[in-house]
Design brief:
By secondary structure, the protein is mainly beta. The chain is 15% helix and 38% strand. It has helices at residues 21-30, 84-93, and strands at residues 13-17, 35-39, 42-47, 50-55, 75-80, 100-107, 110-118, 124-129. A hairpin with a 2-residue loop joins β2 (35-39) and β3.
C-alpha cells in the first residue's frame, strides 16, 4: 500500500505576454523595479527571488497554455514594501494612473491595503502593502 506524501510547492515564476519589448521593459524596470534578464530572443523580469517570464514579439514559446494569455490579459499583484500612500506617490511620479484604491484586500500574508493600475498593454496590476492596517 502506498502512502500519500504531503507536498508543499512554491511558485517559481509565471508568464505574461506583452506587445512591445522596449515599452514593457521600461515600465516594469522603472515603475516596478524589475531587473531585466535577457532570455534568448525574449526577456524576463526578476523581483528579488521571484521571476516573471515574458512572451512577446518574435517569441514562439513551446509549450504554452491551452489558451495563452494575450498582451493585456494578466492580473498580477506585487507587494509594496512600505505604506500604500508611498506606492500611490511612486505611481504618480511615473505618470501611472491609479484605477482603484487605496482599498482593503487580502493577500498572501493576510489583510493589506492595495492600489490598482495597468501596465502599457492593459494588464491589471496591484500593489499591496502590509505595512499598515487595511481600511
Amino acid at each position: 500500500m502506498t502512502r500519500a506524501v504531503a507536498v508543499r510547492v512554491k511558485l517559481d515564476h509565471c508568464v505574461i505576454h506583452v506587445s512591445d519589448w522596449a515599452r514593457s521593459n521600461a515600465f516594469y524596470r522603472d515603475v516596478l523595479g524589475a531587473e531585466l534578464v535577457p532570455a534568448g530572443p525574449r526577456w524576463a523580469y526578476r523581483f528579488g527571488g521571484e521571476r516573471l517570464n515574458v512572451h512577446g514579439p518574435g517569441v514562439v514559446a513551446d509549450p504554452v497554455a491551452r489558451k495563452p494569455v494575450p498582451p493585456g490579459g494578466s492580473d498580477l499583484c506585487f507587494e509594496w514594501p512600505g505604506p500604500i500612500h508611498d506606492a500611490g506617490e511612486h505611481l504618480k511620479h511615473h505618470g501611472v494612473e491609479i484605477e482603484l484604491g487605496p482599498v482593503g484586500r487580502s493577500g498572501a500574508r493576510g489583510p493589506g491595503t492595495s492600489v490598482y493600475f495597468r501596465d502599457p498593454d492593459g494588464s491589471l496590476l496591484e500593489l499591496i502593502s502590509y505595512a499598515e492596517a487595511p481600511f
